[in-house]
Amino acid sequence: MLTPNDPTDAHWRVVPLPTLSDARKDWLTRGGSLTAHLRTLGAVTVEVTREAVDMPWRDEARALRITPRTPVWVREVALKVDGVPFVVAHSIVALAHSTGVWQSMRRLRTRPLAELLYSDSSVSRSALASSRITARHPLYRLASAQMEGGHALVARRSVFKRHGAPLMVTECMLDALWTRLAASHAPSHREHARAYDHLSSHAKRVAHGEAK
């Protein structure tokens, strides 16, 4: 049974799906600020795509133990690395808390939410939960606006609490992130392949008595 402000449910799990790649498992479970992790890959900018009063998604309402018609303040952004969207994020907080405990969330503009979440010792964080996101989930529509493609994506979410007020953050990783990570490892893979070819060639020469 869900406890209040628990990001896990039948579809969102603490342990990533075993079929996911090591890179996906790594990024879905990394603690700390995702923005800070992205900065290791390049210059990060925040594009705010929507800030508005809305209703929570069905799975968000279940996790926060609120009714689906409870008004919430929504902030949606695209996190870009060197101008390319790598992550889309969807954050919600009860409307009353958005003008109280979490009022700073409304004044962020293009600054990352991480500035609020990791600079205040009174903020606690739940465990991270991850899920595969298909076209049936509303988060997929946000991701589709920033990329092309029609396959499943992966996302993670957690609940931050400040003075008892929960704020849920859901982050969906886009294909550009995995492409960049693969490219960053490509040189080492090529070097390994060249070293292997050299050793293979040397072994053949030894077998034919050509190597000195």
Automatic annotation (TrEMBL):
Keyword Cytoplasm: yes
KW Ribosomal protein (keyword) present: no
Reactions mediated catalytically: chorismate = 4-hydroxybenzoate + pyruvate
This protein's pathway: Cofactor biosynthesis; ubiquinone biosynthesis
One Pfam family recorded for the sequence: Chor_lyase
Keywords carried by this UniProt record: Cytoplasm, Lyase, Pyruvate, Ubiquinone biosynthesis
Enzyme Commission no: 4.1.3.40
Family: Belongs to the UbiC family.
Entry function: Removes the pyruvyl group from chorismate, with concomitant aromatization of the ring, to provide 4-hydroxybenzoate (4HB) for the ubiquinone pathway.
Name of the featured protein: Probable chorismate pyruvate-lyase
Taxonomic placement: Bacteria, Pseudomonadati, Pseudomonadota, Betaproteobacteria, Burkholderiales
Annotated gene: ubiC
